[in-house]
Amino acid sequence: MSEADKFLYRDSGKVANPLDQADWATKKLVWIPSETLGFVAGSVKEEKGEECVVELADTGKKVTVNKDDIQKMNPPKFSKVEDMAELTCLNEASVLHNLKDRYYSGLIYTYSGLFCVVINPYKYLPIYSENIIEMYKGKKRHEMPPHIYAITDNAYRSMMQDREDQSILCTGESGAGKTENTKKVIQYLAHVASSFKSKKDQVSERTYLRCVKLSVQHLRFRPKRVLRDISNDCIVKQIK
């Protein structure tokens, strides 16, 4: 496994551990609210009408919780799942746990249906090189691990094949990484479009470079703006 692969692929061997699966089924593991941690794992020991006695997984302490506050835990095979739409139990606790688990493993990109959730690592990751771009170029989304390149390639291919404008919306709070991911979108488009050889569909190099230059300037002076539209005649088009 290369250095970049560590930040792209989850450990599938650990996910498929049959012992973890059996342990999950036996203990009736669930999520319960925590004032300090948001949610913590526990095992249902007893049911009393509208309440349950839950033993906390970390401390062994037993607490009484209202059934309405309990959220089901997914089987271990869904640990660090790449697309949260696949979760059997789709609830707040499971979504947050999956994102946290992936983030602490260096996996900052996670799909949620049509969306790609990104958590800012606040450090350099070796997953934005030309070699990584080549890995994602022309691949279907399900063939590769989650990445902003996969989203961009899908938009680019749809634009070239369907001859229709495509949109990529980067949204989030301040410091979430919107500007950096927008730069990666432009980087990917610049690399892929420059290697596109079809004379019929090839974009004018002068027009293309001008558009990319304008986009970079736009990012430099207006970092909070969002890349919203990718058009045929001007690969990157900024819309206010």
Write the layout of secondary structure elements.
Layout: H1 12-15, H2 18-27, E1 29-34, E2 38-48, E3 51-56, E4 62-66, E5 71-72, H3 92-104, E6 109-112, E7 115-118, H4 130-136, H5 148-162, H6 178-194, H7 205-221
Antiparallel strand pairs: 1-2, 1-5, 2-3, 3-4, 6-7
Helix pairs in contact: 5-6, 6-7
Binding site for ATP: 172-179
GO molecular function: actin filament binding; ATP binding; calmodulin binding; microfilament motor activity
Organism: Hucho hucho
Q: In the CATH hierarchy, what is the architecture of the largest domain at level 2?
A: 3-Layer(aba) Sandwich
Give the termini distance in whole angstroms.
Answer: 42 Å
Largest β sheet strand count, sense and barrel closure: 5 strands, antiparallel
- Gyration radius, to the nearest Å? 22 Å
Organism: Hucho hucho (huchen)
Protein name: Myosin, heavy chain 9a, non-muscle
GO molecular function: actin filament binding; ATP binding; calmodulin binding; microfilament motor activity
GO biological process, one term: actin filament organization
